[in-house]
Amino acid sequence: MNALTKILAVAAVGWSGVLPGATPEEEADALWAEPRTAERIIKSVKTCEAALAKGPDADLLWRAARGAAWLARHGPEKERRAQAERGVAFAKDAARASPAKPEGYFYYGMTLGLLSRIDQTSRYIDRIERVGKKLIEIDEKYGYGGGDRLVGLIYLNTYSYPFVGAGSLKEAEAHLRRACELFPDYGYNQLSHAKALLDQDKKAEARRALEKVIASKPAPGESEDHAQWVAEAKQLLRENR
Known about the structure:
Structural class: mainly alpha
Largest sheet: none
Oligomer: single chain
Order of helices and strands: HHHHHHHHHHHH
């Protein structure tokens, strides 16, 4: 049974225990498969943590960060900040353990963004920008243009605060446009770019981007997030006819 077969088998019948012969990474990925629940994601993180007792491993660390990031968004509200902090720690260690690979930086930026949002603070903005630029340098295609999207969204969400913002609206739009150039069919890229266009009152182009979100198909393993992006795009389109 190869890794993909193991993951698909678990996704089809539900998680019922340890997969015979599976690595911790395969078990964590099987538990990550949609539909996701807090129980399954907690087990995914715990699988990584148990294996990490043997020593640092970047592939386990970024998977643990991935799960913690999901729990920081969808888990019990009273636990979300702690999960975001755990995700930051896992991702930072993943980047340190394997500095030439993109995964650690991707989840480091994501979890810092989640922590920043939960705390409603600007203290992490410079770090998120650095992490995003490092991700672009290592692999600009990782995460469907994740580095450009991360940097672009940080600029977009902060440009109007002169003592906080890391970049301008023009720079935000340039990074988000680049993410769309790399992966034009990825809904979150088009949605993010549309928001930058709306802030510049480029409504016609923004509407075209929103229509692309609605027409897009979910990337593997992202149907739940994709449904939210489509719903948001439809709402923005109604508001900007």
